[in-house]
Structures are given as C-alpha cells and as structure tokens.
Predict the structure.
Amino acid sequence: MSTITQQPPFITVIIPTRNGAATLRELLAMLSQQTILLQDIHVVDSESTDDTVAVAEAFDVKVTKIKAAEFDHGGTRSELAAQTDGDIILFFTQDALPASRDCVEKLLTPLLEDERIAVCYGRQLPSFDADYCARELRYFNYPPSSSVRSLEDKQQYGLKTVFTSNSFAAYRRKDLAAIEYFRKKLIFGEDMDATARLVKNGKKVAYVAEARVYHSHNYSLAEEFKRSFDNGVFHAAEPWLLETYGGATSIGSKYVIDQLKDLLKKGEVSRFSDSLLRNGCKYLGYALGRRYTILPEKVIHLCTMNNRYWLSR
C-alpha cells in the first residue's frame, strides 16, 4: 500500500491558461482519471479568445479570469496558491499531458516520504509532433533516472541542482509559504528561483523520472534566440543564482557536444549544420540577454519572447 493511500493529502491543482482549449480538454480528462482523487482544480485564464474557459467549466473546475496584462509567471501562481487550501500544490501548464493514470501519485510520493523534500518535478517527454531538437532537449533535461538534490550537490551539478519546471511540479505548501511563494516580476524562471531559495534554506528537490508528461515545443531559430535571450535576462537580473550554484555555460556546452555525438552515432552528419546554427542562436541570445542593461529598448523588444514583461517594468 502506497504512502498516499495510507495518508491521502489534500491536493490543489493550479493551471494557468491562455488559448489552451486544444490541449486543456485532454489534460483535465487525464486528471479526472488519476489514481488519486484531485478535487481542487483551479484554472486561471488570461483573456483566452478560444474555448478555454468553456472547456474548464465543462469539467466543473474552478475558473479565475484575469486580464492578460495582469499575468505574471510568479505572481499569478502565488496569488492563487495563497487562496487555496491544499497541503500540496500541484502545477501544470495547459499543454503538459499526463502519460499515465498514476503520474500524479508517483510525483507526490517523495514529498510524503521525506520531510526535507519541498518540491518534486516530473519527467517531460517530447510530444508526438516534436522535431529532432525539441526531442533532444527533453531527453537532455529530463533523463530516465530519478534523483534527489540538496545544497551539498551544487559542486557536482551546478545550476542543475535547482532545475525545476512548473509545467509539472508539486510543492509542499508550508515550505512554499515559508519563502512567500514565487517571486513576482521575473521574466520567467519563477520555478527555479523558488527551488533555489528552498534548497539554500536546507530543503531538497526531487526529480521523479517515473512521473511523466508529454510536453515540448518546436521552436524556430528566431524563437530559440528569443527564449535564450530571456534566459540570459533572468540570470543577469538574479545574479545570486549563478553566484550560489554556478554558471550555465558548461551545461549548454555539454548539451551541444552530446547532440553532435548523437548525430554522429546515428550517421546523421547532414544535421550538423542545423544543430550548430540553432545552438549558435541560443548562445548569442543568451549572451545578449546577460547584457540587457546596456541594450537600447528597441533592441530588447526585438530580442525578447516576452514583450509584456518589459512593458510592465
């Protein structure tokens, strides 16, 4: 008998949405079929123009509507989390689709077995329509073996020590509340920021490879550049992360080398140029993002994936 069966926690599920009708229906259907009962599901919608709200209401979940301009990756999640009652707060994005009926139960198990674990995140598998680069990024970031990491592991894993994704992650409420939930006004990375603060305070983060969802994005070269630019902005704006846990450059280099080795192993040398070009765009975007404070505002708006962040500053 599992720990969850013996001591069932009260779980709150929070799903931010915007024009997510295409995947939200399948997500909510899968959540209704999980091996543990999920009764407290909240959708917070940012002015969708499709059937997102109608889909949510059809599943009889709680819906909160906000203005699109009010959405904040950390602030919106924090405000809703603080208003709910779950002992555990489980976050999904609208396009993360559970791969099994027991993925939530598997994700939550470490939280109930070790009081020092404050956050668990699951494995993200590439979606069925994922291109080569999207697949490889998922396999790199989400390996098949589970792990538990603490501050003592930063020498070995660097910034990867506190890697997390709110596309599929669960937090112990009392621990998240102790750090006042997620930080507001971050360009993104509210999940890594919160996890880094939890780990710095002596908590642990668990990666649960057995808990799986399908979730990936096929980015164009321009989108790769912009996503990496925003990542560079995040690291530049929060220097304590790199000072505490180490830089991100070595992680990126390992990813490029591993990808080239994989292409060579598969005899797909023709993909080398695309891989190098794509990763070059990422490197350039990240490098510029780290130096965003010296860039003209017009250049920033051309480089970012999140113009709303800059308009709200």
Residues 72 and 267 are 44 Å apart (CA to CA). The first helix runs from residue 3 to 6. The chain is about 45% helix and 15% strand.
